[in-house]
Task: inverse folding
């Protein structure tokens, strides 16, 4: 949508784990420590950091860098669920076993397999993401895996990545035995202002931006303050800021554009007295990131639908479905200027379906009332002058 306006080949601040966008400087220290743990066969290492700091990106990058002597297995608490962790690891390593085999038998098969790998000069590394969500039973299985040794060498290297709550869990008496095995504990820190500047320039370079320095120094400071240097929040704020720059037909991103983006996203510092968050498995930071990403995602979907020429007005879903065999209403006013016109006038449109379903209510709340309306006040005032 704004790609042609800025001269981009792709969206520079998308939230997917694309290797092309990897910015290694922010993770170099942690990556070196994890590599050291693997090389020294220390058995267990912890990778800790706030939500959105890039732990998953680092794990995936580490996995892709493995040589032939390293066999990597990537798991997350979501993929594992409450199933046996040993069985999940064995399945990922393609160790044959029958469904009726007990977990103890599977562990024996794994021990034989791992001894063979060690003899062949290979190291097996198990990377567990979002490890703070593992059950007590799964942590006990991890402890058993760290016990596997042959001739004084650990048979498997385990890296647990998680929120700071994982570290706090390891300080409890129930986890003392497992905690003693975690020799390496490294942190993924938020970006400082210099790293943030290089991070943004790097992502703009990747998409072929004609001016990778399109964010002014003051605007970078605002992004850093709002995001606290957390890369995922940086992406969300910058994506929203580019949208505002596109609406106002600007090529250089300035501080007021960032201020408007932050206001649109209702972005407040985590722990602010005015914010009410449910903790859950994601923690305070994670819930905030999920909310921000959902808001931005809904806006982009609606704008992209305008650009492609298929829009279903929320106030007339039945009429729109009746007017088109595909259930969508063709949009005859597509293209950059028409999208800008829609953005600038959207706040004057009342979207109130007669019988809104839950998803539509969420869309209206996140997009029309909270995100788009406030974001376009500046653009509208300039248009009326």
Result:
């Amino acid at each position: 949508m704004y790609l042609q306006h800025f001269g981009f080949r792709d969206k520079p601040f998308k939230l997917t784990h694309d290797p092309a966008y990897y910015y290694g400087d922010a993770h170099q220290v942690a990556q070196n420590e994890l590599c050291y743990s693997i090389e020294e066969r220390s058995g267990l290492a912890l990778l800790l950091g706030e939500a959105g700091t890039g732990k998953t990106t680092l794990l995936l990058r580490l996995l892709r860098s493995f040589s032939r002597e390293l066999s990597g297995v990537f798991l997350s608490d979501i993929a594992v669920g409450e199933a046996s962790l040993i069985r999940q690891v064995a399945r990922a390593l393609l160790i044959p076993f029958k469904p009726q085999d007990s977990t103890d038998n599977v562990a024996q098969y794994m021990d034989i397999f791992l001894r063979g790998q060690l003899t062949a000069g290979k190291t097996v590394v198990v990377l567990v993401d979002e490890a703070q969500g593992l059950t007590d039973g799964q942590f006990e299985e991890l402890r058993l895996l760290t016990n596997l040794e042959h001739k004084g060498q650990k048979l498997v290297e385990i890296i647990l990545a998680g929120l700071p709550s994982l570290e706090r869990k390891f300080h409890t008496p129930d986890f003392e035995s497992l905690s003693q095995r975690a020799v390496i504990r490294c942190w993924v820190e938020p970006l400082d202002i210099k790293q943030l500047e290089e991070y943004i320039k790097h992502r703009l370079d990747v998409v072929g931006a004609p001016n990778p320095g399109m964010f002014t120094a003051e605007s970078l400071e605002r992004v850093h303050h709002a995001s606290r240097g957390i890369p995922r929040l940086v992406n969300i704020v910058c994506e929203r800021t580019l949208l505002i720059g596109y609406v106002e037909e600007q090529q250089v991103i300035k501080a007021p554009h960032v201020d408007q983006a932050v206001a649109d996203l209702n972005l407040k510092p985590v722990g602010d007295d005015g914010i009410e968050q449910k903790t859950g498995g994601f923690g305070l930071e994670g819930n905030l990131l999920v909310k921000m990403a959902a808001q931005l995602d809904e806006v982009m979907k609606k704008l992209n639908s305008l650009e492609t020429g298929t829009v279903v007005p929320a106030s007339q879903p039945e009429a729109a479905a009746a007017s088109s065999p595909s259930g969508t209403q063709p949009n005859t006013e597509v293209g950059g200027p028409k999208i800008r016109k829609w953005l600038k006038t959207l706040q004057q449109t009342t979207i109130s379906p007669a019988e809104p379903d839950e998803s539509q209510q969420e869309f209206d709340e996140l997009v029309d009332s909270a995100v788009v309306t406030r974001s376009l006040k500046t653009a509208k005032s300039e248009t009326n002058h």
The chain has two domains: 3-17+192-384, 40-187. The two ends are 26 Å apart (CA to CA). The beta strands are 44-48, 70-76, 123-129, 149-150, 153-154, 156-162, 182-187, 310-311, 329-330. Residues 269-286, 311-334, 346-385 have pLDDT under 50 and may be disordered.
